[in-house]
Amino acid sequence: MGSLDTKQPDYDVLIIGAGLSGCYACYRMRQLGVKVKVLETGSSVGGTWFWNRYPGARFDCESYTYGFFFSQDVLDEWKWSEHFAPQEETERYIRFICDKYKLWEDMQFNTRVTRAHWQADDCCWKLTDQSGRIYTSRFLITGIGLLSEPTLPNIPGVNDFQGEAFHTSRWPENVVDFKDKDVGIIGVGATAIQIIPEVARTAKSLTVFQRTPNWAIPLHNSKIGPDEMETIRKGYPELLKKIDASRLSFMHEGIDDSIWDATPEEREAFWELMYAQPGFGFWISNYKETLTDLKANALVSDFVAKKIRQRVKDPWTAEKLIPKTHGFGLRRVPMETHYYETYNQPNVRLVDLLETPVDRIKEDGLQTSQEEFKIDAIIYATGFSAITGAFEAVDFRGDDGTRLLDQWKEGPRTYLGLTTQHFPNFFMSIGPHQAYGNIPRSIEYAVGWISECIEYLMQHHITCIEPKEEWVEEWTEHVHDIGKDLLSNTVDSWMTGVNKNLAGKQKRTIARYSGSALDFRSRCNAVAAAHYDTFTLK
After folding, report:
1. Which has the closest alpha carbon to 141: 423, 472, 438?
2. CA-CA distance, 296 to 513, in Å (whole number)?
3. Tens-place pLDDT, residues 150-189
4. What does the UniProt keyword field contain (predicted)?
5. By 3-state DSSP, what share of the chain in percent is helix, strand and coil, each rounded to 5?
6. What pTM was estimated for this model as a whole?
């Protein structure tokens, strides 16, 4: 074994990203007493909740389940004001944690890591930022998120537009006023579904340019008063038990009821009940075949399509808003407040890009195959290079200069979704092949596992850890196997690595762990209990 005392680098641990992963990783490293530094591209903490500050941005799962559970003090002191908190409240929550534990002291902002290279001779990582400054550390933790590299549409003339232009994930901190303006929005993913009703309130006109419609159901948000917040606090212990026993770490539980055992009337009554409830219940607590049986999924889809037709007055628009080829829940289900009703407003128009594609973006608007639109402001709700995109944005190189992009050119190859071959002392929080679902709950587990691993290495004077090839192969094959029967892996979406605006992102990959969070934690715990014998330790 080596010694951590030989030729110490600048830091024991460097963390890339100051989102939820980076903040919690900083807290855990501080608990270990190691020298740590967080490097963040933005000007403050928050990650997703720093960048995505567009009007209408908010949680799609219950606030009090989305927060961290590691600190009883935070649970006792923090008050949520809504069942589904808006962006600004979530950002305050993250800053509150950083204030309470003085995490700011170990954070550096406006610092974009461009290169991260493993130095085998010194057994450390060498990172370079946009200014050329170099940082070295024994261990590297990435907390760079699933959805952090935005993409613009692959349309000629994007840079020619002379009006105001915004991407939903790079929204300015100042308030944007759309009053008396003609606005165009390209894309109808989850962010667009949230922002469209807000923009339509004040804009002179709003034209929605839609390529692929998405499914959405009502959010049913409401305020949380002092008495209800106190009740929620008292129920945290039981809530945590429920979350940790859930497949996706949400408060909603799955059911074993079969859709084929219910009559059409019973199904309709059940779906009406679930549709009227807040949160992810309609998705998670639906009949067990919903996400694996096309016929069952078609029945659920028909129910949601009927709801859309009831809510949108114009029949043509209603039909355009209903996905034609994909079933409900096969894409991530974005929740909404009054999205469909927005299309009933006289200042809102839908344009189907499958029928009339955008030929180019001009200085003063857009030109489709049939019509020219004069526009004052364009909003790009065109998504991200998801899951692996943030890793592709940094020049990661491991043993012998191995490029991470080359390692993953046919799709991610990981061990436990936390490590990858040829990249010693390299850990990922919420990278590919991890259990996602409720993201903060997943982060608490992933960062906790990483922290305990680093603690073990330090206690045993181990300077280098890297997963063995056979276990990387076994884990990657396992991830592929458990995802093969899930209908969502048969659909082009960010969850299968497809982005039609990016070259090389047209082929589906298995980039996420489709098993239950319980199974994921069980496998990872077993590795730790066996003293990491599936890794090469030096």
Report:
1. 423
2. 23
3. 778 888 999 999 999 999 989 998 889 999 999 999 998 8
4. FAD, Flavoprotein, NADP, Oxidoreductase
5. 35, 20, 45
6. 0.93
